[in-house]
């Protein structure tokens, strides 16, 4: 069985768990072993299981080579607890697996985890200011209305409106956008973008959108300092000064400007332990329990670097501002420590980078109900965060500019033409729902082809247009929508029927020219003097 990348979507952790079990059962060599003068068929040593599973996880693109042997042992302990394996006497249920010579075997069938029942998060409807609501104190009756003739350039921009004489137009005023309105727009468009990047039909099964706080997104975007670090309005939620000093000390080692006291041998290890203890006592991880599934889904995009970075950028905007700030400071410190060659080793047996991942992965990502792959998934995410923290923990500029443009667009006074819907350059964001292929084809045909065909027919039948203007508009239409134009005019002859008189005149002129070729001038007697 070939390992494959488990992409984004609901229950990704469960899918990974089941895949690893199947791969392990298929790849673990089984043979005869002796223990205390007795032979056991189809079993394996604990150390052999660690070797096999460690190699399997390292070559699996869902986990990668950064999985340590210690993490592999912890996973095998969970295998024993969940009866994926058992000892040669049939015992299981405890996490007492060790990397030694004890013998284990597979039960007749290793239990795969069932997928939970489909979660049904209630759909949240976000209301936007109505285009048709007039501003208080302004009457549409007193607004002058006159006919407007649209040229081809205007039509190209607003092709949903009939070309030619537009009967009337009116100004559409918007109500003032409140701060709450703007924050809800940020929430809706941010979630829509996240859904698109993840490639999901809906976010319902990986995120409860009701738990997404629109004000958090807004603060994470606009309440930042020059370095892009979030500034908190509530100063009581800041990190304690002594923790900030300790983090700055290791991040800027050996320049510990904040620390006045002298250092000693092993000082940096004590400082590191203080930081680990502080973050380890938190009741909830920095990425929060609510967003566990969405971040696990993002892990399915790590093979596509740019998409993974974009998805994590957006996902981190959903965090409470205090969590985002702590994450920014912590990951920046971890990355600097990992690449700081002047900092003495913080562990005798573990490399600094691996130590950073092991020490802080659980305080960054874990589930509320302890899951069997929590540690491996968190380690994978934290490693990627460390390598790309400057990009991931910055505000995505494209998203920010598109939302700001949309807000400005909503605040403008709009001109609404009779018989046409409001300009849909920036449609209100909404959550997509999957439809069948047949329904998609039907909507595409009825939603675009039929109105365009009707528009073309209106141009053709408009007797008030001059021949020159009609040809100009038809040429513009043909350039913009060649398929619709070809259906109406499949051959040049069908197009020529529109201008019969001119064609007939040309034909007569050509016939006369053929019948009477040019004759040279001859002088006659009448010209003599």
From TrEMBL:
The lineage of its organism: Eukaryota, Metazoa, Chordata, Craniata, Vertebrata. It comes from the Eukaryota. This is DEP domain-containing protein 1B. One of its GO terms (molecular function) is GTPase activator activity. Keywords: GTPase activation. Residues 201-393 form the Rho-GAP domain. SUPFAM superfamilies: GTPase activation domain, GAP, Winged helix' DNA-binding domain. One of its GO terms (biological process) is positive regulation of Wnt signaling pathway. Pfam families: DEP, RhoGAP. Signal peptide: none annotated. It comes from Crotophaga sulcirostris (Groove-billed ani). InterPro entries: DEP_dom, Rho_GTPase_activation_prot, RhoGAP_dom, WH-like_DNA-bd_sf, WH_DNA-bd_sf.
